[in-house]
C-alpha cells in the first residue's frame, strides 16, 4: 500500500519541501511548530518570510516578540506560536549551541513540541526513523484498519509496532498527501483511491 501511494503522489508536503531546499534542522523545527492547524501553503509562505529576517536560533531568540508576531500572523494561533518559537530559539542557542537535538526525549521537552513535531523533525531534518502522527495519519491508519485508536499518540505507538522500520521515514509524508488530496476528513474520494481495494471503509460504488 505504501508503494502504491508513493507512485500516486509526486508532490511534496511543505515540510519535505523546506527540508529538501534548506537542509536546516532549526528551520524545519520552527516551520513544523508553525504548521499546526495551518495549510501547507500558508506554512511555506510564513516560514520563508520569517527566515528571511531571522534565519538562525540566535537571531530569532533576540528578535522582538512583536516583530515575530507580525511575521507569523497568517498562521492559526499565531500569538502563542510566536512566543513558543522564540522560547525554543533561545533554548537551542543557549543550551544546545545552535544545534537542534536529535532524540525524541530532548525534542519533546522543548516548549510547544510534542511527539508529532519531534517525530517530524527527526524524519524531515535528520532522516531518522520515526512515524509522526498528525490528523491525517491518525485518520487514515484507522480507516485502513491498521489501528483502532482514539489518540494520535496511541496511533504512533501502534504504527511503529506494526510497520517495518525501513518504511517509517515515508509514512507521514504519504499519509499527509493522501489525506490532503484523496482520503479527506469528509467526503473522501474513495473511487479515486489507489488502495481502495485494501480499505475496509471504502465507499466507492463502482
Q: What does this molecule look like?
A:
With 206 residues, the protein is mainly alpha-helical. The protein has helices at residues 2-8, 14-22, 25-35, 40-53, 57-61, 65-72, 78-94, 104-108, 115-125, 135-143, 152-162, 168-181. The protein has 2 domains: 2-10 and 131-198, Endonuclease Iii, domain 2; 14-125, Hypothetical protein, domain 2 (Endonuclease III, domain 1), CATH 1.10.340.30. The radius of gyration is 18 Å and the shape is globular. The two termini are 20 Å apart.
Helices and strands in order:
Elements (H helix, E strand, L loop, with lengths): L1 H7 L5 H9 L2 H11 L4 H14 L3 H5 L3 H8 L5 H17 L9 H5 L6 H11 L9 H9 L8 H11 L5 H14 L25
Helix pairs in contact: 2-3, 3-4, 3-7, 3-9, 6-7, 10-11, 10-12
Key features?
single chain, 206 residues, mainly alpha, Endonuclease Iii, domain 2, Endonuclease III, domain 1, 2 domains
Straight-line distance between termini: 20 Å
Q: Which term fits the overall shape?
A: globular
The main pleated sheet reads as: none
Radius of gyration: 18 Å
Structural class: mainly alpha
CATH class of the largest domain: Mainly Alpha
The named CATH superfamily of the largest domain: Hypothetical protein, domain 2
In terms of quaternary structure, the protein is: single chain
Tally of helical runs: 12
